[in-house]
Amino acid sequence: MSAIRKILLASVALTMSTAAFAQDVTVLRIGLDGGENESDQLRRSECVAEPLKAATGVSEVQFFPSPDYNGVIQGLLGGTIDIAIMGASSYAKIYIADPEAVDPVLTTQQADGSTGYHSIMVARKDSGITDLASTKGKKLGFADPDSTSGYLVPNVALPAAIGAPIAEFYSETGFGGGHENLVLGVLDGTWDVGTTFGSGQGEFSEGYTSGNLRIMVDKGLLDMDDLVEVWQSPIIPNGPLMVSNKLPADLKTKVTAFFKALPETDFECFDAFTAGGYTNFVDANQEMYQTIIDARKSIIGG
After folding, report:
1. Which of 5, 20, 47, 87 could be cross-linked to 239 through a Cys-Cys bond (beta carbons 3.0 to 4.6 Å apart)?
2. Whole-number Cα distances in Å, 159 to 164, 166, 167, 180, 241
3. Which residues does residue 194 pair with via DSSP β-bridges, in sequence order?
4. Where is the signal peptide (predicted)?
């Protein structure tokens, strides 16, 4: 058999295999990262199921809540989850482990056109803590080891702000089990201060325009009068909507097109799925997150 004929046969076989794979994809699986409680995440996300089925031709859309970020990360790496919207550090962890696992296709945009947010350190208002200097010797809680705003960025930016290594400045550090639980832990005294996230736009008294504080306010879990902001990080790129590269290319295109159009086709669903405070999805790519990838390599290593 000639070399050309072998190449042609291999090409035909690959095309047939890809077509068969595309036909076999009858379920799309969306990962939910555990940043808030499972029932609320499911309630916010379920509105995308039926229209996503119609847009892609799959027979079912399933949701997979995880108690932490890593569960979704491993699902995306292993191909058991197809779609997820997560923070930049979570994408960085995936990219470092396997640059070809997912594509960051879209990210959220605020009303002013910006596509970033901030790590916000908070304390109880009655704690006597008013600024970074007064957090010395206190217990610092982080949200999750794979959280951008709740762990990675504070570890990058805080040492310069406090003038010392975190381990030396604070009496104790640990993880609160997601952003919602972290803030609740600050309120109940488990942590003296904690790192969560917000847009930094609008009023702190309202939990800003978007982010975990605003989500908790809107759910009635938080009265901002009980908290004080101690520190705000430099701007962080909004996290990407990621699509697995294990999906056929045409299905990836349909998934991306569906979510990009969602703010126009059903803004209420877009608002719920993204947890509120955003106006649009805009295109994203790997280059947008290179600084976070580099930071994760230097701070965490992977």
Report:
1. 87
2. 5, 6, 10, 25, 30
3. 122, 141
4. 1-22
Residue 13 has a pLDDT of 38
Query: What is the DSSP code string of 144-180?
Result: -TT-IIIIIHHHHHHHHHHTS-HHHHSSEEEE-SSHH
- What residue type is 57 in one-letter code? G
Q: Do 175 and 146 form a contact (C-beta atoms < 8 A)?
A: no
Strands in the chain per DSSP E: 27-32, 60-65, 83-85, 102-109, 116-124, 139-142, 172-175, 193-198, 227-232, 236-237, 240-244, 280-283
> How many other β-carbons are positioned within 10 Å of the β-carbon of residue 280?
19
CA angle 17/286/120 to nearest 5° reads 130
Contact 97, 77 (CB under 8 A): yes
Compute the Cα dihedral for 43, 47, 50, 54 and give only its sign. negative
Residue 275 CB coordination number (10 Å): 21
Cβ neighbours of residue 69 closer than 8 Å, sequence gap 6 or more? 33, 34, 35, 86, 87, 90, 144, 145, 146, 147
What is the distance of C-alpha 31 from the center of its chain? 11
What is Dmax (Cα atoms) for the chain?
82
Please give the pLDDT value at position 28. Answer: 98
Q: Alpha-carbon torsion 209, 255, 31, 89, what sign? A: negative
What pTM does this model have?
Answer: 0.85
Cα–Cα distance for residue pair 288/141, rounded to 1 Å: 28
Identity (one letter) of the amino acid at 287?
E
What three-state secondary structure class fits 225?
helix
CA distance 269 to 109: 15
Give 4's pLDDT tier (boundaries 50, 70, 90). very low
CA–CA separation, 130 and 279 (whole Å): 33
The whole-number pLDDT of residue 59 equals 97
